Amino acid sequence: MMKHFFFLFFLFFHFSLFSQTTPNETQTIIKENNFSTKDSVSLYRLSAQKTAAIRIDGRLDEQIWQNAQVVTGFTQNFPTDTLLALSQTKVQMAYDENYLYIAAICKGNPKQNYVISSMRRDFSWSRNDNFSINLDPFGDGLNGVYFAVSAVGAQLEGLIFEGDRASSDWDNKWYSAVSDLPDGSWTCEIAIPFKTLRYPKNKSKWKINFVRNDAHRNERSSWIPVPIQFSTVSLAFAGELTFEENIKKAGSNISIIPYLAGSATKDNINNTPYKTKGNIGGDAKIAVTPSLNLDLTVNPDFSQVEVDQQVTNLSRFEIFFPERRQFFLENSDLFANFGFSRMRPFFSRRIGIAKDTITGENVQNPILYGARLSGKVNKDWRVGLLNIQTGQDAEKGIIGNNYTVAAFQRQVFSRSNIAGIFVNRQETSSQNSDKPYTRMAGLEYNLQSEDSKWRGKIFYHHAFLPNKTKGTFAHAGFLAYNTRKFYASWNHELVGENYDINDIGYVRRKGLWRFEDWAGYNFYPKKGKIQKHNFHVYFNTYTDLNWKTTDRNISLEYNADLFNTSEMGAGFFNDYTYLFSSFDPTNSDGKEFEEGEKFTNTGGYFYFNSDSRKRLNASTSTSYRTYFTGTRFNIDGTIRYRFQPYGQFAISFDHNIIDLPEPYNDANFWIISPRLDVSFSRSLFLTTFLQYNTQADNVNLNARFQWRFKPVSDFFLVYSENYLPENFGSKNRAIVAKISYWFNL
Fold first, then answer.
1. Which site from 91, 449, 487, 564 is most exposed, i.e. has the minimal number of CB atoms within 10 Å?
2. Which string of DSSP letters, residue by residue, matches 268-291?
3. Cβ–Cβ under 8 Å, residues 151 and 178
């Protein structure tokens, strides 16, 4: 144990040295190129009389927009970061007691050749012409929000966390409109209620950046320049937004979102009649302070959540599917981003899922109620507290559980933080099991340098389990360096043999050491059609706790990005696998290779993504490799047709051919997934998704109709059915209708 302590101390000290870096070099780039821009904007303060004159219609004909300061001089982030943007943007801002207003004129596309995937809310940022705003009210460079409006007026909003990572799974109330100008430019007008934002009480200066994506020209640009190796959402690169006075709390800030739902289901396998069910519940959002929010839920319903995209599982481990339920998404990084992707101490999708002890299948277990307090206490402290209670079903042997999660982040240095988490699952039923509780506590140090070139993480998590005291821990360390041309990283992981927390978290493997390293180099040609060449090398090794190698992967890769948005690449890899348990590599209940057998396999792959600006475009990849004692061929891809601005039809496929010698099974697996997304307007949407999966021996149909009749108020009609692949005979079907309404009190 002591050697682990000294190792952690060494890495913590090593990371801390990199936390105190010099300011970012963005302004130096501007001076060298004589670009004229500003890094601050003052807001025009509206009087109560002038507020009434603002109409969010995209026309920008109010008197306020004749007086407000104009910021422009946008600089490219892509395809280069050393030039002024070809598609320039002019931005103005104002505010009153209730709203923050933004107006933008987006120039540079005189023929209005916009690329628009649909009018659907929460569109793909990179695949649509749009204007967006990044806001960091606390100025910590780590947490914020963004709002984006496409050239046809579709809205997208999301949370920014860990400095440069974004999630679009956050919905809130705001207003926007767009309009076309005779010269081919388009204008955008936005009003964001202060009730929607989380901000400090006594601060008149926020961090902000404006970003423009001209998808037709394949140009990304921003007001404060962002180096090409970083995303334009990065909060390390932001200007200053100055209010004339501190923003006060905008009155009471309480929202109630009740819902009413009804469903009908039929099981055709057991030939049961239709079962109908009604459901009522709702959520509440209470702003305890302008920066700290209390979310409550009673009998939540997630029937409108889109189904997971199926994959062919040829691994020895559980597949990770992301959380999609709305209650768990706001500030989810505060709870869900501890650890690494293969070893999360808390995974919210474990809540509401239980095993039916009669059938042995995983089934939904209703959530009775939940509460979450999350947000910023001040610039340095961020806290979260979550409590969820699930139901019980004695007939199915399902035991009720209470889940409590407490987390904090304390910012240190410029953009780093120390974070802690505690998770407790406690049975609340009268029934007993062999694992009445699972508890876990962990501490992390997250490094981000001021200029984002250095980032890293080091953590130690410890589980407290019934009848287990040894090997109930996980530890890892990660350090990465990223510049315009060169990047490299180091990662190591240590997981104890008894780190059994998969009832509250996600741990893919136990009892191991893992060492993962990669490095790459980018070349930017001065001429030709290729925007960037990239060479990448990757090493990944697993050992058991006695340092015996169980898995190893080495790969070399070349990638090329073209100016027309096309991408291509190829690679070669070599794998080593030691089976620590018997395994059928087709996952088809065939003969298994025995525990202790060793395999070395090699292979190669190629991928190509066509010009995404074309209405008809495609992406595909293919690989061929030796596979245990045989071979495996894989080809997958997606073909898309965009009938803008109304939507897109796409068909995805994944085909695996596994050829193994007797007596082992061969396999020929297909997943074929047609998908139709239609936006009849900016408030009326239809998504139809079919998944044909031969490994699962199932065909699944999911159709979802959504009518957003008011901001963040929706009516959903969802139909789903599962079929037998051989004759399309129905296994079961369900239809759900749900309506929810957002009330502000």
1. 564
2. TTTTPPPEEEEEEEEEEEEEEETT
3. yes
Q: State the distance between the two ends of the chain, measured CA to CA, in whole angstroms.
A: 54
Decide: 395 and 217 in contact? Cβ < 8 Å: no
Q: Write out the DSSP string of 519-582.
A: EEEEE--SSSSEEEEEEEEEEEEEE-TT--EEEEEEEEEEEEEETTS-EEEEEEEEEEEE-SS-
Asked if the model's pLDDT at residue 21 lies above 60, the reply is no
Flag whether pLDDT at 248 surpasses 70.
Answer: yes
For the chain, residues classed under CATH 2.60.40.1190 are 35-242
Domain 509-696 class, CATH top level: mainly beta
Residue 267: both structure tokens together? 């099981």
| Token pair belonging to 512 | 């191991």
Tokens of 234: 């990065």
Per-residue pLDDT, averaged over 162-184, amounts to: 91
Q: CB 483: neighbour CB atoms within 10 A?
A: 12
Question: Do residues 513 and 494 touch, judged by C-beta distance below 8 A?
Answer: yes
∠ CA 603-607-608, rounded to 5°: 160
**167 exposure class (CB count in 10 Å sphere: 0-12, 13-18, 19+):** middle
Any alpha helices (H) in 305-374, and if so which ranges?
Answer: 333-336
What's the one-letter identity of residue 492?
Answer: H
Environment class of 527 (CB within 10 Å of its CB; exposed 0-12, middle 13-18, buried 19+)? exposed
Asked whether the predicted pLDDT for residue 25 surpasses 90, the reply is no
Domain with CATH 2.40.160.10 in the chain: 509-696
At 34, list the tokens. Answer: 């004589």
Residue 744 Cα distances to 169, 197, 247, 741, angstroms? 21, 15, 20, 10
Sequence length of the chain is 745
Tell me how crowded residue 299 is: count the other CB atoms within 10 A of its CB.
16
Report H helices in 142-275: none
Pair of tokens at residue 169: 């799974």
∠ Cα 358 359 364 (to 5°): 95
Measured between alpha carbons, how far is 601 from 585 in angstroms, rounded to an integer?
Answer: 13
pTM higher than the cut 0.70: yes
Under DSSP, is residue 714 helix (H, G, I), strand (E, B) or coil?
Answer: strand
Q: Residue 589: which H helix or E strand, with range? A: none
- Residue 12 above 60 pLDDT? no
Output the DSSP codes for 95-151: E-SSEEEEEEEE-S-TT-----S-S-SS--GGGS-EEEEEEETT--SS-EEEEEEET
What does the block give as tokens for 656? 């695996």
Using alpha carbons, select from 477, 472, 518 the residue that is nearest to residue 495.
Answer: 472
Contacts of 511 (CB under 8 A, 6+ apart): 471, 495, 496, 497, 544, 545
At the topology level, CATH places domain 35-242 in: Immunoglobulin-like (2.60.40)
Residue 109 clears pLDDT 60, i.e. is over it? yes
User: DSSP 3-state assignment of 236?
Assistant: coil
The pLDDT, as a whole number, for residue 41 is: 66
